[in-house]
Amino acid sequence: MVGTGGPVASFSVWDYVVFAGTIVGAAGIGLFQAIRGRKETSSDEFLLGGRQMTAVPVAMSLTASFMSGITVIGTPAEAYRFGAAFWLFGFSYAIMSAVTAEIFVPLFYRLGITSAYEYLEMRFSRPIRIIGTSMYIVQTALYTGLVIYAPALALNQITGLDLWGVLVATGAVCILYCTLGGLKAVIWTDVLQMVIMLAGFAAVIARGAVLQGGLTKIWEDARQGGRLNAFDFDPDPLKRHTFWTIIIGGSVMWVSIYSINQSQVQRYISCKTLGHAKMSLYVNMVGLWVTVSLAMFSGLAMYSIYKNCDPLTNGDISTPDQLLPYLVMDILAVYPGVPGLFVAAAYSGTLSTVSSSINALVAVTVEDFILPVCKNLTQKQVTWMNMGLSVFFGALCIGMAGVASLMGSILQAALSIFGMISGPLLGLYLLGMLFRTTNSIGGLLGMIIGLVLTLWVGIGGQIYPPTDEMTNPLLLSTIGCNTTMSQNYTTTAPWTSPVTLTSQPDVRPPLADSWYSLSYLYFSLLGTVTTIVSGLLVSIITGGCKQKKLNSDLFVRKSDLFCFSCFSNSKVSDVTEKTAPEFHIGANHFTLTEFDVMSKDVGKATKL
Questions:
Q1: Lowest mean per-residue pLDDT among 304-318, 382-396, 489-503
Q2: Which of 20, 49, 225, 347 qualifies as a cystine partner to 184, CB 3.0-4.6 A?
């Protein structure tokens, strides 16, 4: 009987057919884009889709990129164990979309960049650009390896799919369509994968509603189980999820992910006009709302089914990551092919993240490391280099999945990495974009101080995880279970891989329950604020106020901040795109005079 514990069904032939069909479909889109665009082999076409993409597919791709397999499996488990507080991220997504669309997009679009880190050289210096790019590559390679490994492990333990066979197949498919089709293939496969992810959630919710007697019953069970108490206004920064940690810390974390992360920047600057670029972020915001809402409701449906028999406590599964795959095999196995659809949904999340990471890693490597040194490469040589690097980074990500398999508490580490590394980087960008006083010395030292501080608190938090008092897991029951398996189970902190109960350090230092218990959502805020404050102080001390007049194109303008004036600016953005390659820093260094002349040309076009 469903919801009473014990073993569940395994994959059927139809499940394998549906799953394989999804993988083949993704590869087919990549091949189609490669064949359709075989005459357009420029680097701009490969890395930016020829800057001719429109808002809706780019928006769906933006949503799919960070709705990884970890999210597909982890978010419902979050709702099941901790309640609906995660839904408050909807506010964070709105703040993130507005900040990115109104501050960062116009600036990057105006400069016509391919790599987000080109800006750091334009505003500061070449060494700072190299450091920023290197931080991004380390962060992305590690995170992508975890994104491949974590869902594969959870699904392997529930469905019996061969772990390494699927890992290599996932990497191989991503390499295939990234290498042959470039960014256009990545974006259009993301659209397919987004649809499959949403269909997977819808199937779980629909079946759960049928079993439990309607959506109202699921909602009532969640209310009685304390799962709907989302608004905790406790200002304590040590509590994992409160209204303030999610709205303030979560917003800064998502801004750092969307505004300066190459995987995302590369998408919205591929749009054909500034209007489409801004609109893609607002449509993406709606996509994030829909995805998270479906994922959270799937978790509430799971709680309604397992409220009297928690599979984790009962020993049917060993980690929270396996809750949703276990539910799927428990309630949907009677419909051949539907569990296959869910597995396809989880892997679609993985494929979309991995493919965007590969394409972005290729872009920053070519633009930030190769082209500034090898300026005489032909277009054909650059194209072959792009393809070769796609294969290299795909293999590297599969390798990182192997490293992830040897690690213990990895998933919270993976998500915390965004805060630890992107936070100080966001602070550096804001220093450059908002403050004319900032110089290279201040920017570099500010970022280093911010990075040291976030690494200290982040790594400390991994070694000495916060107590249940701070993470606040909700009550679960096994009173209705038919079978009780061995109680030698493992438990996990949210976002983490299995950590056995005995692995907690016996002696906790004084900092463990204060500094190291800081909510992971505040890592990014801490890094950003520390970088800005220390960077400004160092700049003032080292003569930042006496700098020569800097080009105004490198700073945020008041005219950038009118959100829907984008359509009236579409002509201007087209002009900007045409002039951009002339001062494209990846190929040549430009002088301030040349930059000013081009700014005036664009200004004249604006008046016209």
A1: 489-503
A2: 49
Residue with tokens 């829909």: 290
Q: What is the pLDDT of residue 531?
A: 96
Confidence of residue 158 (pLDDT cuts 50, 70, 90): low
Both tokens assigned to 82: 């901790």
Cβ burial, residue 549 (10 Å; 0-12/13-18/19+): exposed
Contacts 24+ apart (CB under 8 A), 499-505: 499/408, 499/409, 499/465, 503/408, 504/465, 505/463, 505/464
Give the Cβ contact number of residue 186 at 10 Å. Answer: 32
Given pLDDT bands bounded at 50, 70 and 90, which one contains residue 379?
Answer: confident
- State the average pLDDT over residues 155-169: 74
316-355: pLDDT as tens digits: 887 787 888 889 888 888 888 888 887 877 777 777 778 7
Instruction: Give the chain's largest Cα–Cα span.
Output: 78
Phi, psi of 13 (to 5 degrees): -60, -45
Q: Is the dihedral of CA 80, 81, 85, 90 positive or negative?
A: negative
In angstroms, the CA 288 to CA 278 distance is: 16
**CA dihedral in degrees (217, 222, 225, 231; nearest 10)?**
-150
53 forms beta bridges with 271
Q: Calculate the alpha carbon distances from 394 to 344, 360, 414, 441 in Å.
A: 20, 11, 18, 36
Contacts of 261 (CB under 8 A, 6+ apart): 116, 136, 360, 422
Kindly report the length of the chain.
608
**pLDDT above 90 for 31:** no
Task: Give the end-to-end CA distance of the chain in Å, rounded to a whole number.
Answer: 72
Q: DSSP for 220-251?
A: HHHHHTTTT--------TTSSS-HHIIIIIIH
Confidence of residue 219 (pLDDT cuts 50, 70, 90): very high
DSSP string, 484-537: ---S---B--TT---B-GGGS-SS--GGGGTGGGS-TTHHHHHHHHHHHHHHHH
d(CA 174, CA 111): 30
The helix/strand/coil state of 475 is: coil
Other CB atoms within 10 Å distance of the CB of residue 389: 21
Nearest to 137 by CA among 354, 358, 350, 352: 358
Cross-strand pairs, 572: none
The mean pLDDT of the chain is: 77
The predicted model scores a pTM of 0.80
More confident residue, 424 or 475: 424
Q: Token pair 């500061």 is at which residue?
A: 124
Q: Please state the rounded mean pLDDT for residues 469-491.
A: 62
CA-to-CA distance for 607 and 537, rounded, in angstroms? 39
Using alpha carbons, list the distances in angstroms from residue 552 to 78, 110, 349, 431, 578. Answer: 45, 11, 40, 14, 19
